[in-house]
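Morning. Coffee machine broken again, so started the prediction first thing and wrote up yesterday's gels while waiting. Chain of 272 residues, entered below exactly as on the submission form.
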Amino acid sequence: MAEQLVNEFTVNRPIEEAWPIITDVEKIAPCLPGAELQEIAQDDERGEVYRGVVKVKLGAISTQFKGDAHFVEKDDENYRATIKGKGRDTGGRGNASADIAANAESLSPTSTKVTVTTDLHITGKVAQFGRGILGDVSSKLIDQFSANLNQMIDEDGVGTPAPDADPDGGASESEAPADAGSAGSPAADAGGAATATEGSSTAATTGGSALDGTASTPATGGDEASKVRKINGPAADPIDLMGVSGSSILKRAAPVLGALALVLLVLRRRRS
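Came back before lunch.
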C-alpha cells in the first residue's frame, strides 16, 4: 500500500534559528511520540545514518518498527531537506519505507512553518489499517510532535539573546577579577584550564547534552564499530493508536464487527 501524507507544523522561532533545530535528528527524536533513537552510524555513501525504533500499540497488542533513516538532501540555504527511511516490524508482520521532504518558510520574525510531505509504502499485515487511518494518525502525531518541540525549545532557551553588557563598559560582577590567589592567580588559571579541558574531554566522550538530557557513547572494538555512536536516551512510550485515532479505527472495524454480530445472531437462531 502506498500513500502520500502532507502535514504542517509551526515552530515558535525565526527561520534561521528553527531550521538547525528541526534538522538535528538527535535533538528532536525525543519529541516524536513512540520514537527512540538508538545509534548514529557513519556510512561512506549515505553519511550519518540514524537507527532506532518506533513503538506502537493497539489495545493490548504492542509492536515496534526497527529501522534507519538518512538525509538524501539538506539545503540549508533554501531551508529544504529530504530524508529516506525504512523499517520492519520486529514481529514479522510487515515492512515500511518512506521518502520524507521537509520545507520551511518564515511566517513572521518569530515563527516558522514547516511542511512535511511523506511518500509512505507499507507491506504485510500492518497495511490493513488503511489510508484514512494513517492520515488521521499522522496528523495527530505531528500536532503532538510540534507541541513537544516548542516546549523543548522554550525550556532550553534556544535563541534567547545573551544578557546586555554593563552600560558603563565594565565587566559584569560574575566576570570581575577575583582576589589574588583565586581566579586571577596563575595557579588558579592553570587549574581552571585543566578543569575546562577535563570537562571538554568528558563531554566529548559521553556525548551528553544539557539541552535534551540524553547521552551518547562511542562504540569500540573495530574499525566498523568505531563508526557507530550509541545514544543513551530515555525509553519511548509506544504510540497508542486507539487513543490517537480511536474513532477512525472503530469506523474501519465497524463492518467486521457488524458481520460478526450477524454470524452470532444466526448461530443463536439455529440453536433455538
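The beta strands are 2-11, 35-43, 47-58, 61-75, 80-89, 94-108, 111-124, 215-218, 228-232, 239-240. Going to sketch it on the whiteboard this afternoon.
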